[in-house]
Design brief:
The complex is a heterodimer. Chain A has 11 helices and no strands. Chain A is mostly helical. Chain B contains 2 helices and 3 strands; from the N terminus they run ββαβα. A 3-stranded antiparallel sheet of chain B has the order 2-1-3, with helices on one face. The chains are: A mainly alpha, B alpha+beta.
């Protein structure tokens, strides 16, 4: 067998860590993009309807890049579409936050802001990734995320510091979503491998800047940060998704489920 | 008090060197959100490099019923058009 190189175990592991990391990035934008798209035609005012649809489309566009690269890295011939439409709940690696239901408009916007605050920080760091493909995707996506966080942050402030009713709704949304924030900053072996290779920042390293942004906006929105330190987890590892993800997938994947292999 | 957000008129400059053009209107609670809404509603197909928004109530408009005194007198003043000059070819498009 002289001269034939077989991948070493450590190389294979590095590849699967990278695949896992790319799924996490792509599944976040896919699931949130789908959630936000559910507002299309239902938003409280026309301007918000279009703005939300724009955000959803930005996120789906980013998904194509992340999952496209994930399929490439995996090397099994799976496309971004295959990964989006032919996996089931336990294969998804998105944060629990993004699969939470839309609730009212306030809850949707608050979820968006909490995600955007993390996303823009993450993407900014990823523009310096040692992996040029990841740096390129992040460079394109960070411009979109910068606008998203500005828009969602301003809307959180407007509604939080708005009428008695809008304030109460935003506070209820914050109380509900707060336990899903901690998962963003919890690292595991995959994250360690990514940080070690200079591919991505350790999740813990994002906590201070992200929380500073979130706390500043919530203060201006006159909202009270819940006391609880409890953090839900299990989304990014795929071990414990909430019941909501399965329902979302039945909507998102119904066409491929009903007509397997259907194409345009 | 009205629950409606005020109306804003939106002007977009398509490219540098061209003036802003009125493209439409939208509702927004304040100027900053009007700017963001204008970005989302009117520049999603790469239409612009600059946005102006102005609250519609700040625009003074002529009254359609005044169109006789306002515009008809200029209809018969053909000498106001610079159409009696021969423009040299070198001048190019005017």
């Amino acid at each position: 067998m002289g001269g034939v190189e077989t991948p070493t175990a450590s190389l294979l592991e590095a590849k699967s860590d990278l695949f896992e990391f790319l799924l996490r990035m792509g599944d976040n934008t896919l699931i949130l993009g789908h959630r936000v798209s559910e507002w299309c035609g239902h938003a409280p005012v026309l301007e918000e309807d279009i703005a939300l649809a724009n955000t959803a489309l930005d996120l789906i566009g980013q998904t194509q890049m992340w999952l496209g690269l994930a399929g490439e890295v995996e090397g099994q011939g799976r496309s971004a579409d295959d990964l989006a439409f032919l996996r089931d709940v336990w294969d998804f690696r998105n944060l629990l936050l993004v699969e939470q239901p839309n609730g009212d408009f306030g809850q949707t916007i608050l979820r968006q802001f909490l995600f955007d605050a993390w996303h823009v920080e993450m993407l900014t760091r990823l523009t310096d990734s040692s992996d040029a493909r990841i740096a390129a995707i992040a460079g394109k996506a960070v411009k979109e995320a910068s606008y998203h966080v500005e828009r969602s942050g301003d809307t959180v402030i407007g509604l939080g510091d708005g009428t008695e009713e809008s304030h109460a709704r935003m506070q209820a949304a914050l109380d509900r979503l707060w336990p899903y924030l901690g998962e963003m900053f919890q690292g595991d072996a995959v994250d360690e491998a990514m940080a070690g290779a200079g591919i991505a920042p350790a999740p813990e390293a994002l906590q201070t800047p992200v929380m500073e942004r979130i706390e500043a906006v919530l203060a201006e929105a006159t909202l009270t940060i819940p006391e609880t330190r409890h953090a839900q987890s299990g989304g990014k590892t795929g071990t414990r998704h909430s019941e909501h993800l399965g329902h979302l997938l039945t909507q998102m994947q119904w066409l491929q489920r009903a007509y397997p292999g259907a194409t345009w | 008090m009205s629950n409606e957000w005020p109306l804003w008129e939106v002007f977009i400059r398509g490219q540098h060197g061209i003036s802003h053009r009125h493209v439409g209107s939208l509702h927004a609670p304040d100027a900053e959100m009007a700017m963001k809404n204008a970005r989302d509603v009117y520049t999603r197909r790469n239409e612009g490099v600059s946005i102006w928004v102005v609250e519609a109530r700040h625009i003074a408009a002529s009254s359609p019923s005044d169109k006789g005194p306002l515009y008809e007198p200029s209809q018969s003043k053909v000498y106001r058009h610079p159409s009696f000059f021969d423009i040299p070819d070198e001048a190019g498009h005017m």
